[in-house]
Amino acid sequence: MSLGMKVAIITSGFLPVIDGVTVSGYHRLQKLSELGHEVKLFCPDYRSLAKLYPNWQDYSGNILPGVTVVNYRACLFLWILKPMSVFGAMVV
């Protein structure tokens, strides 16, 4: 029986994009893996940007021991421009 934690991380970006968020996130995943934790990272896929990032799928699935990257379908965030109700309060 593993004594490690089960961790879920949701992020707006991941590798192959190189920026502070993705690099620090990857280092966090490495450390959690080394410590024996089970991690699921949820991040957008780069299907719509495949010409720019042709190897984006290399960073999906099991990328480290105990670490699984799950891609969600990316979409434009045009809905942000419209007010929405969150828990009964209007958010703009």
Write a concise keyword list for the protein shown above.
elongated, 1 helix, four-stranded mixed beta sheet, single chain, alpha/beta, two-stranded antiparallel sheet, 30% strand, 92 residues
Offer a quick outline of the entry.
It contains one helix and six strands. It is α/β, with parallel strands linked by helices and 92 residues long. The mean pLDDT is 81.
Architecture blueprint of SSEs:
Layout: E1 6-10, H1 20-34, E2 38-44, E3 61-64, E4 67-72, E5 84-86, E6 89-91
Parallel strand pairs: 1-2, 2-4
Antiparallel strand pairs: 3-4, 5-6
Structural class by sheet pairing and helices: alpha/beta
Helical amount: 10-25%
Order of helices and strands: EHEEEEE
- Low-confidence region ranges: none
Tell me the strand percentage band: 25-35%
Give the number of DSSP strands: 6
Number of DSSP helical runs = 1
What is the residue-averaged pLDDT?
A: 81
Number of domains: 1
Q: Based on Cα principal axes, name the global outline.
A: elongated
What can be said about the biggest beta sheet? Answer: 4 strands, mixed
Adjacency order of strands in the biggest sheet: 1-2-4-3
- What is the rounded Rg? 16 Å
- Measured between the Cα atoms of the first and last residue, the distance is 46 Å
